Amino acid sequence: MIPELGHYALVLALALGLIQSIVPLIGALSRDAALMRLGTSTAVMQFAFVSAAFAALTVCYVTSDFSVVNVFENSHSMMPLIYKFTSVWGNHEGSMLLWVLILALFGAMVALFGNNLPETLKANVLAVQSWIACAFYLFILLTSNPFLRLAQAPVEGRDLNPILQDIGLAIHPPLLYLGYVGFSIAFSFAIAALIEGRIDAAWARWVRPWTLAAWMCLTVGIAMGSYWAYYELGWGGFWFWDPVENASLMPWLAGTALLHSAVVMEKRNALKIWTLLLAILAFSLSLIGTFLVRSGVLTSVHTFASDPARGVFILAILVFFIGGGLTLFAWRAPMLKQGGLFAPVSREGALVFNNLFLTTACLTVFVGTLYPLALEAFTNEKISVGAPFFNLTFAPLFIPLLFAMPFGPLLAWKRGDVLGVAQRLMAAFAAGLVAIMVTFVVMGMSSALAPLGIGLALYVMTGALVDLAERTNLFRAPLSTVRMRAAGLPRSTWGTAVAHFGIAVTLFGIVCQTWASERIVALKPTQVVTLADYDLTFDGMTQHSGPNFRELAAKFTVRSGGVVIGTMEPSKRSFASRNSSTTEAALLTRGVSQLYLSLGDTNEDGSIAIRLYHKPMVLLIWLGSLVMMFGGGLSLSDRRLRIGAPKPATKSSSLQPAE
Fold it and tell me: What is the pLDDT of residues 595-644, one digit of tens each?
């Protein structure tokens, strides 16, 4: 009965979505307040019914109802409860239900917290949001129904994919989807603005908090996925330039550009058309990522589905929303009034520079990811585009971007003094140069580029601190005055500095992997392997039984300077129900560095192959992402973003010929 209730709840959500996609739009066109307000109630009810459908599927998993096809194929009665919950979205059908749940959540939040929006804009936004929801409701109901029944319920399920039975799956997909789907709000605002012909600084003020919230979630979602791949897949790397990894990076780059562009639009009423285009592109890239994961065009540990029919359906959704959005943009954007002018050397100019490099980097990743797929589709020729291509094209684009990053916040609006800013950044330049020299002295000439990367990271970190010091008059005013000025700074200013600092922390961690060391050896019990001042003694093997797996674990005692500092127990797990196995790496954390130990195969002589890494400063990669998210949270808590913008004057909102 519960699966049927979930299915009917999803059908009712589709019916409400169809009403919401039409009636408020008619109300906005006819200026009928009652019809426009209908969008608010339908958005909330739509979320309620999707929540009921998601809850129904969750109950089916928790109770191990194997009469439901989705539960039978992705669960097991002996699986730990936490993985029964994560199994709900650890498959194609369930993950799409999570997708529409988050989509409906954002729509309901706009409905409930968008009271300061003009009625017509709010109605159009909710209508566009519902267009997207209806497309995915139809996709789920017609091709990916999670509530299908089996005629006879099996005694036991087939179990969840073993590599997904990890706590990281409880965090990574929901955060990633909050980012992916969150950009739908920016898309809906952009389409609504084009429909209505209203685009001004107040529009940017309304869009920024939604975009910032999505960007924060996507930042942490990507970082969590990177860490999951690092410790779960047993290869010791944090980024493989996998096409599906790239699919999450592209909307992040576009969303970062959108955030900076929206600041220019809000503060200076400039870059209007460009900001609209970025809002469309950010969500369009999220849809492309959805297509790559679910169409069957890729084979990856990240992909869910390989059914061409589903791929065609999602491709149709892509064509409708991306093609339709860009067509509407091409038709209506030239009719919008252009924004204000500014000098190339200004804060606006720095943010345009930021946008130029971010979008170029995004284009590089886009071409590198999709070109092999297009080439194979049209010529049946297969090529591989991997890390060497992206490292040679993507990394150089970020060097000038990072170098310019400390300049932007210190430049004045409209017209700035680059020489004056450079003088204020002398401490940052000095910190970078000292870091380069110290790194060369300590680490030698093994890599000429790595010390430059360390210097660049320290320069950006110090630049973020210099920005705060300049704004608070640190070292130039009494401490009481500094405290008062610091307390009076907008939280968005603090957030910008913290986010920039976090990017530098991540860069520092990435560059330090240049000095990572690795050993692959075969050991017998009592033998010792040494790496980076650590001695690991192989103590032997033990067998364990888990709830739905058997585990072969190896125990290693770790010493440094002859003193025992810990033990490491990497293992291999065998899942009989899936007839597959996983490698569980062991990690030993020392500060922000880690020892990483992964088991290989057992040899005929009784020895076992191991792969041992020393990863200096590796945790800074993910710590920097958390710092970025914290910076975004500070900006999001700024009162100016919480209360939104005052209703704009109508005289500046009409369609006009471009100037």
Answer: 999 999 888 888 999 999 999 999 999 999 999 999 999 999 987 665 55
pLDDT(656) > 80: no
One DSSP character per residue, 95-143 reads HHHHHHHHHHHHHHHHHHH-TTS-HHHHHHHHHHHHHHHHHHHHHHHHH
DSSP tag of 398: H
d(CA 440, CA 446): 9
Pairing of strands 528-531, 534-545: antiparallel
DSSP string, 418-458: HHHHHHHTHHHHHHHHHHHHHHHHHHTTS-SHHHHHHHHHH
Integer Cα distance of 466 and 481 in angstroms: 17
Q: The tokens of 69 are what?
A: 């096809």
Nearest to 190 by CA among 84, 91, 324: 324
**Predicted confidence (pLDDT) per residue in 388-435, tens digit:** 899 899 989 999 999 999 999 999 998 889 999 999 999 999 999 999
Q: In sequence order, which residues have a C-beta less than 8 Å from that of residue 69 and are 6 or more positions away?
A: 148, 149, 150
Pseudo-torsion of CA 313, 318, 321, 323, nearest 10°? -120
pTM above 0.70, yes or no: yes
Comparing C-alpha atoms, which of 138, 150, 145, 183 is closest to residue 69? 150
In whole angstroms, give the CA distance from residue 618 to residue 596.
11
Q: Find out whether 185 and 133 touch, Cβ atoms under 8 Å.
A: no
User: Rounded to 5 degrees, what are φ and ψ at 162?
Assistant: -55, -40
Whether the CB-CB separation of 14 and 141 falls below 8 Å is answered with yes
In Å, how far are 208, 444, 461, 467 from 492, measured between CA atoms? 11, 41, 17, 13
> Tell me: the pLDDT tens digits for 90-117?
999 999 999 999 999 999 999 999 888 8
CA 555/CA 614 separation, integer angstroms: 18
How many residues would you count in the chain? 659
Q: How far apart, in whole angstroms, are the C-alpha atoms of residue 531 and residue 559?
A: 11
The CA distance from 505 to 589, in Å, is 18
pLDDT of residue 511: 96
CB 574 within 8 A of CB 582: no
pLDDT tens digits along 462-485? 999 999 999 999 988 999 999 999
- Rounded to the nearest 5°, which phi and psi values hold at 107? -60, -40
- At 240-266, the pLDDT tens digits run 898 888 999 999 999 999 999 999 998
Q: Which of 299, 297, 323 is nearest to 308 (CA)?
A: 297
User: Distance (Å, rounded) from C-alpha 139 to C-alpha 320?
Assistant: 14
What is the Cβ-side half-sphere exposure of residue 312, based on CA atoms within 13 angstroms?
5
Strands laid side by side in the 593-602 sheet: 517-523, 608-615, 593-602, 586-590
Please determine, for residue 647, whether its predicted confidence score (pLDDT) is greater than 60: no
H helix intervals, 473-595: 479-488, 491-512
Both tokens assigned to 54: 């998601």
Query: Rounded to an integer, what is the distance from CA 152 to the centroid of its chain?
Result: 41
| Residue among 62, 147, 63 at smallest CA distance from 97 | 147
Sign of dihedral through CA atoms 430, 431, 436, 442? positive
The secondary structure element, H or E, covering residue 36 is: helix 33-62
Strand runs labelled E in 546-606? 550-560, 563-568, 571-575, 580-584, 586-590, 593-602
d(CA 470, CA 457): 20
